[in-house]
Amino acid sequence: MKNELNSILQAAKKEIDSASSLAQLNELKVNYLGKKGEITTLLRQMGSLSPEERPVMGKLANEVKEEIQSLTEKKEDYLKQKELEDKLLKESIDITLPGTGRNIGGLNPLTIVKRAMEETFISMGYEIVEGPEIENEFYNFEALNLPATHPARDMQDTFYITDEFLLRTHTSPVQVRTMLKKEGKLPVKIVSPGRVFRKDDDPTHSPVFQQLEGLVVDENITMADLKGTLLLFAQKMFGKDKKIRLRPSYFPFTEPSAEVDISCIMCDGDGCGTCSQTGWVEILGAGMVHPNVLKNAGYDPNKVQGFAFGIGIERVAMLKYGVKDIRDFYSGDIRVSKQFIGG
C-alpha cells in the first residue's frame, strides 16, 4: 500500500503541474480526493492490513492527501491569476487614442434667468417658498378676492381637473398658504417661483409657463417700498442704467394695482420697434395687497400692509436674450441651450 500511495502522489504531482485550466484542475481534485477518488478507494483496503500496519498507513495516506490538496490550491491560485491577467490583456485600453467626443449642452435660458432672479431676491432678504401645481379653487381664486361670481375669473382661462381642483393659473396661492401658515406673524417676505397653466398658445404665450411672485407683509409698507424693490430687481437683471415706471392697472388681489415697465432693452428708451417707439416695455404686474386678501389670510388690514408682484420668467428671458418666440424655450432643441453654455 505504501508503494501505491507514493505512485498516486507522483502521478498527481505531474498532472497538477501540467493542468492548464481551472476546469481540468477541478477534475483532477475529484479523481484523487473525491468520494470515489484514488486515495479514498485505497483507504477502503485498510481492513486487510494488520493492526500494526493500519495506523502507519493511515498516517501516510493523510499526508499524501494533504500534499495533493496543497498542490491543487497553489495551482488554483496560479490559474486564477493567469486567467485575470489574460482577461485584462484582452480588455486593455489604448490610452494614446483620442477620446470619443460628446455633445455638451447648456442650461436652458429659463433656468439661468430663474436662478438669477432667485439670487437677486435672496440678496434682498426674501425666502423662496414653493407650493403644489394642482390647487383648489379657494387658494387659487377665492382667498385672492376672486369669488365664483367675480368677472375677473374670465381673464384666466383655466384647466380644471374637477369642479373643485385645477392646474394653478398663477403662483399667488403660495402667498395665501404662507400667510395662513404664519398665523398672523410678521414679517412675511417671500418669492414663489414655479410653473403655472393657462389656455394660451402663441409666439408670446404658452399653456405652461413660469412665474415668480413676491409678497411682503409688515407694518408701514408703502408703494415706495414696492417701487424701490422692483427698481433694484430691474437694474440687477438688465443693467444699472435701467429705469422703471408704474402705470395704473387692475388686479383683483391688489389695490392700488400697477403695470410695471422698464426702459427698453434695445434702444435705452429712445424708441424702437421693440418698444413700439415708446421707450418702455412692460415686464410685470404689481400692487398693494388687497385688504380682502389680508383678511382671508388672517391679517388685520388696519394694522399691516403688504405689496405683491408677479413676474413672468419667460418674459424676462425673452427681453434679456432677444428671443421672439416663447416656444423656443420648450422646443427641446439643443441648439437653443448650447448658446448658453457657461451661463
UniProtKB/TrEMBL annotation:
The protein's required cofactors: Mg(2+)
Keywords: Aminoacyl-tRNA synthetase, ATP-binding, Cytoplasm, Ligase, Magnesium, Metal-binding, Nucleotide-binding, Protein biosynthesis
Known catalytic reactions: tRNA(Phe) + L-phenylalanine + ATP = L-phenylalanyl-tRNA(Phe) + AMP + diphosphate + H(+)
Subcellular location: Cytoplasm
GO MF term list: ATP binding; catalytic activity, acting on a protein; magnesium ion binding; phenylalanine-tRNA ligase activity; transferase activity; tRNA binding
Binding, Mg(2+): 255
EC number(s) from the headed UniProt entry: 6.1.1.20
Comment on bound cofactor: Binds 2 magnesium ions per tetramer.
Keyword Lipoprotein part of the UniProt annotation: no
EC main group: ligase
Any one cellular-component term (Gene Ontology): cytoplasm
Pfam families: Phe_tRNA-synt_N (PF02912), tRNA-synt_2d (PF01409)
Domain Aminoacyl-transfer RNA synthetases class-II family profile: 113-319
Protein's GO biological process: phenylalanyl-tRNA aminoacylation
Subunit structure: Tetramer of two alpha and two beta subunits.
Protein family (similarity comment): Belongs to the class-II aminoacyl-tRNA synthetase family. Phe-tRNA synthetase alpha subunit type 1 subfamily.
Protein name: Phenylalanine--tRNA ligase alpha subunit
Annotated source species: Proteinivorax hydrogeniformans
